[in-house]
Amino acid sequence: MDMLLRGGEYRKLGNIRRTIEPGEALFAPHFASKYKILPRDQWQGMESDEEIKSFIDACPIPSSDQNGIGACGAYAAMMAIHHCRHKAGMPYAPLAAGRLYHRSGRGMDGGSQLGDNLKYAMDLGIPLFRDRRHELDYRSEWTDDEEDQGQDFRIYGAVDCPSFEALASAVQGPCDAVEHGILCGANYDVDSSGLWIRPQRGSSGGHAQCTPGGGLCRRGDTWGLLVHGSWGKRFGYNGWYVVPEDYFRSTVFNDGWGVYAVAWKDGAS
Question: If pLDDT is split at 50, 70 and 90, which confidence band does 40 have?
Fold first, then answer.
């Protein structure tokens, strides 16, 4: 699950192939009527690096770092919660994604399915960050306090997005964030722009990521999704980067969900 980047740095992957058939799981049936796939001639994306960087600089949510564990799916779910809360005008609260990984990874560091992280984030939520050691603890059972905290930081609803067209449509309108799984190329790193991931070459493994609402980008004829990643601020532009459409072609690692609201003990956005 490790991937070697330029400069000799290793980054952890961890997205396990999806076993649910596309369209089989829909966590919010009442939302389906509001969601539709837009034709490409109606797509609107950020078209310059300056516009993309301005979008990133305006975001108050700090970048995260899964720090050598295969918890990318849990971090993608955490980022979806952060961006949904931000869209709803709620304050930022640091969360411990590794504690969600305890659930989705069954207490082991062997990766996890994106859909499992999403389901646990809906049912149990994610507890508050205490310190770095606590954040990365995927082995210990949850405490009663964590169970209680998690109820205030949950995903309320999500819709299956089994294609790039579905993800691009969701991120332009009804969804506050999308989570997606891809097969990383052996050359998975940003190009000279410092923003766009290079075109896919070879394969390395599955990786899960989160794109906030409004994060559709375009460079000439190439579309892509802006990712708020989990490999720290040194990767991409302060931890953000654009993944081009060719990474979303059908492989066993492709997966996608549009997240449209968050929930807490007494309500939902």
Answer: very high
Domains of the chain: 2-30+43-268 (3.90.70.10)
pTM of the predicted model, to two decimals? 0.94
Contact indicator for 15, 3 with CB cutoff of 8 Å:
no
> What distance in Å separates the CA atoms of residue 124 and residue 119, rounded to the nearest whole number?
8
For residues 76 and 113, the answer to whether their CB atoms sit within 8 Å is: no
The two beta strands, 240-244 and 222-228, are antiparallel
Residue 18: pLDDT band (50, 70, 90) is confident
- Asked whether the beta carbons of 198 and 204 are under 8 A apart, the reply is no
* pLDDT, tens only, 48-106: 999 999 999 999 999 999 988 999 999 999 999 999 999 999 999 999 999 999 999 99
Alpha helices, DSSP H, located in 18-96: 49-57, 72-87
User: Reduced to 3 states, what is the DSSP secondary structure of residue 25?
Assistant: coil
122 contacts: CB under 8 Å, gap ≥ 6 = 27, 154, 155, 156, 157, 158, 263
Radius of gyration of the chain (CA): 17
In the DSSP assignment, the letter for residue 65 is B
